[in-house]
Amino acid sequence: MRRKVVAVVSIVGAVALAPLLAGAEQEAYEDPNDTKGRLDVKKVEVAGAKRVRYKVFTFQSWNPNELRDHGFVIVFFDTFGNNRFDYFALVRSNGDRMNGNLWRDRSRKKDYKVANLKTWRPSARSLGVRVPIGRMKWPASRDHYTWRVQTLFSGGECRSVCFDVVPNDGRITVPRPGPTPTPTPTAPTPTPSETPP
Fold it and tell me: Is residue 163 part of a domain?
């Protein structure tokens, strides 16, 4: 009897957690040692759906003091599908720690801050940031968004700014979190009725 109760509790718990774990599968995107500076990206790990966790790993170690006014990590997002990025998560140093903000990048108006972002340092060669995808605006019919990571570093061997992007070509496409939008049905065209002779 006790085993049956434990089994039922386990099943109920798994069902309750399923919505929380949906989209939580981690994906990893490797990048070669292809640029100078402390922010040459080695790998980007991504997990989550509505609040997505990005972990950016670099080939070199660094600390927040070295990055102040010299190093930036940006995650760009295209939610409108208009061949430009509509939002960006900007992570920068205040000298003591890394801080992040989500910004709406508007083409004809001033950018505005959407949210403060949680950041952390998993190691001396990595940075984590969590982005609330649900805070972004979407066209009703759009079923996906795209993203790309970019780092910028100046100083030392980077007298001008050293850039690195992941992926090197293109963007990563991700299904829209939540229910998939359904197209608006159109009424069928009535068939003309025959006129009796």
Answer: yes
Residue 185 CA neighbour count, 13 Å, CB half? 3
Is residue 117 predicted with pLDDT exceeding 60?
yes
Asked, for residue 191, whether it belongs to a domain, the answer is no
188 inside domain: no
Domain that holds residue 163: 30-175
Domain count, the chain: 1
Task: Read off the pTM.
Answer: 0.79
